[in-house]
Write a structure and sequence with these properties.
- It is a single chain.
- By secondary structure, the protein is α/β, with parallel strands linked by helices.
- It is built from 10 helices and 12 strands.
- It has a 7-stranded parallel sheet with strand order 3-2-1-4-5-6-10, with helices on both faces.
- It is globular and about 60 Å long.
Length: 321
């Protein structure tokens, strides 16, 4: 094994989640930029969004160790951070609708949990990557949000992520802590939670039910495959700079009704029913980020397309069920 890797021991919070598990699977099998880690510690409290099935391919590897616990457990977090070289902080409450119903868990996990991790990283002088979202920029009528774009969150979820980002940047400005932030577009790919738009719509089609879309279905999102997302994060870890924010956007932007159309074409059901339901409170119209910084400075280029990835999403849903 290559001993020259910059961060041989990493802690991944939220590693049983959708994106975190993809990072672990790719890192543990040497697919990511920067080399093969000698040790990957996984911290996950296994809420509804955490599923150990996602880690089945790597769970028996000696280099991979799972720890059941929360990012709000100060003692546990301190012990884990002290024994690793870098922290990749994926753990978060992330479902907008749930945050609208009750924001408490979002504040606890996304803000308090991040603060606890930042303090541990500061005590032990560790690099920490905060995995954030393009939703912190709020809705854009036109154009793309660059990394210096004002934060204008619309939901309790995006507000909690904005707060976490600002905490991280404050730790860099005040203490010189090596904090780096990534803000990614909507993700899709294998093992995504069935409550998200694409897998939820797939299940509706397979069950013969109508696809349900908020409002008129014309809200627009940029879309990014999780493997492209994880490649970008790994480049930020190994090539990025302290105190910097990196936007990560895909090559494709679609309205929700266009997503439904792509899925219906895949399943050859063009006449399938689409039901428009009462719009989500505070529903942002459009997200779009400018990713030129990470492309120019870190050599990242997205590779995957949604149309070529639907079958793996279908297979992943079967595996998780």
């Amino acid at each position: 094994m290559d001993d020259s890797i910059k961060f041989p021991r990493i802690l991944v919070t939220g590693g049983a989640g959708f994106v975190g598990s993809e990072y672990i699977r790719s890192a543990a099998t040497g697919k990511l930029f920067g080399g093969l880690p000698r040790k990957i510690l996984i911290l996950d409290v296994l809420t509804y969004a955490g599923n150990l099935k996602r880690l089945a391919d790597v769970s028996q590897m000696e280099s991979v160790e799972f720890i059941l616990g929360s990012v709000t457990d100060r003692q546990l977090v301190d012990e884990l951070v002290s024994s690793t070289d870098a922290v990749l902080h994926f753990a978060a409450e992330s479902h907008v609708d749930r945050s609208i119903l009750d924001s408490t868990k979002f504040v606890e996990t996304n803000i308090l949990g991040t603060n606890i991790l930042l303090n541990a990283a500061l005590r032990h002088s560790k690099t920490i990557i905060l995995i954030s979202t393009d939703e912190v920029y709020g809705s854009l009528e036109s154009g793309d949000a660059g990394e210096s774009f004002p934060l204008k969150p619309s939901s309790p979820y995006s507000a909690s992520k904005s707060a976490a980002d600002l905490l991280g940047l404050a730790f860099f400005a005040t203490h010189g802590l090596d904090v780096r932030i990534t803000r990614a577009a909507n993700n899709y790919g294998k093992f995504q939670d069935p409550e998200k738009l694409i897998p939820k719509s797939i299940q509706a089609i397979q069950s013969g039910l109508g696809i349900k879309l908020f409002g008129n279905g014309r809200n627009i999102r940029n879309w990014l495959h999780i493997s492209d997302h994880c490649d970008a994060i790994s480049r930020v870890l190994h090539l990025g700079q302290a105190g910097e924010v990196y936007n990560i956007g895909g090559n494709e932007s679609y309205s929700n009704i266009e997503i439904a159309g792509i899925l219906l074409d895949f399943f050859k059901k063009p006449q399938f029913e689409i039901e428009f339901i009462e719009d989500r409170l505070g529903h942002d119209w459009r997200y779009s980020v400018n990713s030129s910084k990470i492309k120019k400075s870190l050599g990242w280029v997205p590779q995957r397309q949604l149309g070529d990835s639907i079958q793996e999403i279908v297979d992943g849903l079967k595996f998780l069920s």
